[in-house]
């Protein structure tokens, strides 16, 4: 392989596929990136066998070829090269790659491309297209609520459910749940669970992309295609919880409050709440005021916020992290806390004018207080 390629394009593509490289893989070959040069195109592929990412970029190919190179090493070196310069890549007979750019040169020992898993990115199944902006919103509002450990693997994923031209993304971890829905132009029915890690990496990749994303779902895999990138992921096996049965509307109190006011108050109160294993803050709701309290051996915090309230006064405790995770992603100026009781779930909704029904519900369980 012998090619000439733009540093910016190469650096961007390496950063994209590196998201699929696992630092803890038992197979050393998976710490590398497969690089294939053909037809004036450089294709980069990385996988950890659960998540795979492939991207291709134009380049000048003098000699076709392929090699696997250590991801971290080539990524660090290319990133530190002068921006917008030209990089010359050439493979040698001993599975090494020589990289030249202006006055810089490095020789990296690689592996034969034949040792890299032949992980096909041709996924066959149900295919539909979704606006990339819509997909971004669905993921951004939900993925963080999935479980981070494997005590119930199905909870580490996000449910993608499509029915009646509505796509819902659902994530929950046993303490909170996020449900986001958007209209899409697809009349089929789909229900699959995708690892939240995959959804997070998709979110990072499509952060600034527009247009459409093509999604294909087979029995065991899901693939996302956008522009020059393909992401392939395993699906999680098992039955997702009946999330609709969790959603209630028998509220005792409905509290309307400024998003910015409550976010800033909870951020200050959480400074002391961090000393508690539950990050406990207490909301004391009375008349037109919420008093937010937290305490530790280092002191205590009291915050007061003006509110509009319908229903009963209530004193309730929450994990501050779960509230802040929600408050950091929403865009609306006002929210409502829909409370059923001090030991029952709280349903938080954005206040959006001209909408009779919220397309996003966030549920969080309270922490019992004495």
Q: For the residues shown, what is the average pLDDT?
A: 93
Number of helices: 6
Strand order of the largest sheet: 14-11-12-13-26-25-24-18-22
Q: Shape from CA axes? A: elongated
CATH homologous superfamily heading of the largest domain: DNA Polymerase III, subunit A, domain 2
Largest sheet, in brief, is: 9 strands, antiparallel
Tally of strands: 26
Instruction: Report the CATH topology name of the largest domain.
Output: DNA Polymerase III, Chain A, domain 2
Structural class by helix and strand composition: alpha+beta
Cα-atom radius of gyration? 25 Å
CATH class of the largest domain: Alpha Beta
Q: Strand content of the residues, in percent?
A: 35-45%
Poorly predicted sequence stretches spanning 5 or more consecutive residues = none
Which CATH architecture of the largest domain?
Roll
Number of separate domains: 3
Q: Provide the helix percentage.
A: 10-25%
Could you give the distance between the termini? Answer: 69 Å
Brief rundown of the structure:
The protein is of the alpha+beta class and 370 residues long. Helices cover 17% and strands 44% of the residues.
Describe the structure.
- The chain has 370 residues and is α+β, with helices and mostly antiparallel strands.
- The protein folds into three domains: 2-115, DNA Polymerase III, subunit A, domain 2 (DNA Polymerase III, Chain A, domain 2), CATH 3.10.150; 126-245, DNA Polymerase III, Chain A, domain 2 (Roll), CATH 3.10.150.10; 247-364, Roll (DNA Polymerase III, Chain A, domain 2).
- It has six helices and 26 strands.
- The protein has a nine-stranded antiparallel β-sheet with strand order 14-11-12-13-26-25-24-18-22. The protein has an eight-stranded antiparallel β-sheet with strand order 6-2-3-4-17-16-15-10. The chain has a five-stranded antiparallel β-sheet with strand order 5-1-7-8-9.
- Helix 3 (132-140) packs across helix 4.
- It starts with a strand and ends in a 6-residue tail after the last strand.
- The mean pLDDT is 93.
